[in-house]
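In these records, each integer encodes one residue's backbone shape. Here is one protein:

___
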Amino acid sequence: MIKQVIIAAASAAPVMLTAGWAYPAGMTASADRVSDLVTGTGADLPRRVTPTGAAVWAGTSIKVGRDAFGIAITPDGKTAYVANQGSGTVTPIRIATNTALKPIKVGRGPVSVAITLHGKTAYVANAGSDTVTPIHVADNRAGKAIKVGCSPAQIVFTPDGKTAYVDDSCSNAVTPIRTATNTALRAIRVGSAPVWIAITPDGKTVYAANFLSGTVTPIRTATNKALRPIKVGRGPDAIVITPNGATAYVANQVSRTVTPIRTATNTALRAIRTGGAFDVAITPDGRTVYVSNFFGTTVIPIRTSTNTTLKPIKVGRAPFDLAITPDGKTVYAPNSGSGTVTPIRTRTNRVLKPVRVGRDPTFIAITPDGKTAYVANSGSGTVTPIRTRNNKVLTAIKA
């Protein structure tokens, strides 16, 4: 997955700000414009800082490429793939030994990786070259790049694996890809700046979060037709769907709210005020949604039965992504401004001792057996493996 915010570009339309707050060559960003669009408070973006405070030492990390960002793990738990935005590569990591294998050349600015449910192919969104690169998992060979729209961000699959959907964040479209032939189909028009997509468990509907429109566009996968957009809050930038498919929760970054959507009718319910909203994750039982407050130091739980917030949980600075173990017992929050990851016990919402990792930890992926979490450290170009049983770092081998 990918998280993005909007920046203003000199003599150009707004573009996406990704991975360590880098932006495409030749573009210049206005901090005021970033603040206006993202925080609404006039505050500047969080700065990269040296981790401080009590934390579990992370030990040796796995060296990958520059600006390690998106990360995904194969369904069999054997390989992790890391998108190195600054290197134009993807690094496979052999999980059994925590060894980084030879980097795979893809397009410019790879920002996310998604793996088919059968585990045979990894698809990489190359934001800088407007392409998606398929990688054959069996031999880590890159296939021919698939041309999509401008600045592809995230990829999701239908449950049968026949179609991938890619949000083209500066083309205002979603592009379907026929996976049997790796052919892009006709793009589907949505709202302005779709930075996130999610698909219902039954595969019938894709939802696209349109950051600049303040809407979510439903797409019927049977026909690839967009339905009427759903008005949510300002700056929607993440969506999570309950395991039963009944409700989608939309994080509105600028409004600092979460909007539930009843998927049966595509009706937005009353917005939930959270004080911050960047990423969202849901427990496997569907009872609790967790919301990261990137411009603060908290993670906010929401009880889905009542759509009410519980007491905010104090973590590190600028919590970015969120990931929950398959058994639903622990949430992990990478704190990009503190260089740490905070484990949270879901039963009590109690914070455990933070784990110190690399600089600018952004995304995290957990193996299917729940034993290991892999953290992509954008600022140090490394991946840190964490043993979830005791939140200690495993011995890692540098490439």
Summary: The chain is about 0% helix and 45% strand. The two ends are 24 Å apart (CA to CA). The domain at 5-393 is CATH 2.130.10.10 (Methylamine Dehydrogenase; Chain H). The helical segments are 31-38.
